[in-house]
Give the backbone structure.
Amino acid sequence: MSDRNPFSRSFWRSPRPPHAFVLGRDRLVYVGPQEPAKKAVLGAAPALRVALRTLPEDAFTPGPGDVPVAGPAVAGALQRLLAEVAVKIQAASLVVPDGFVKLLAVDVEDADRNHRETDEMIAWKFGRAFGEPAPPLRLSWYPAGPGATGTRILALAAPESAAASWEAPFEKAGIRIGALETGAFAVSALAKPAPSGDSFLVWADGDTATAVFFADGALRFARTRPVFGDAEGALHEIRLSAAYLHAGDGGDDLAAPCTAGPEGATVVEALAAFRRTRGFDAPAPLALSTLVPGASVAPAASASDPAILMGLGALAGDR
């Protein structure tokens, strides 16, 4: 058992290091500044360098709740990646797929006054997802406005054994992980929501689709569901999430302004088709050219890689 605090609030960390790694099921990607002495500053047409290494099929083993635990192959890929990048990296952000963590929303009374009680209650809620007795968890939660009773909390959790395994190769390489984040929340840092009214974002990279809902620019709700080729089923889940959020206010479930990506994902195409049939505007694309105009990427062929958006979002600053 790890000696780390199982209730460590370790997701959504700030401030942000100037380098990011995106760990996927089949590859490890580095995103950072082309010139090591400079940070990739958003709003200043950042010049980005991207490098990647593929991972073998046995790079992960299933942990509690089927959350992937990284094996030695991830450390080997990191060492090869660092040799290519050839930059001294003291700290970095780490982005993992949405499917690597569990996400839930729960209403809590006096969450900010009773952090320890809130941690324990949320850990108990996650117990059903990870099995009883629940393993030590890497847990983080975020107040997301009023709920039906008390405060709505959005919580992320992963088994400590899994989260520690993702970070261990970096620690052994002398790199401190200063931010640990999931793909959808990293991208949402780039896709600034509308300053007034409702809006939402859909990120469907890999085998999950995550919908993140905002009200007047503030995070209000989020939900991740598996896709596994069933785009219509995933779209139905997104509609259920919107209906839950707007229960009782008479709003159309997916009428709000939205952004969606990566481009070409089946869930994104299904969402665009649905909005067309309702007479709504098409989702604004989650793409580097639209979110960060003028950004340059080396090598240029990687500019459409979804990992760039996740890595750049992890560099985007405080949450």
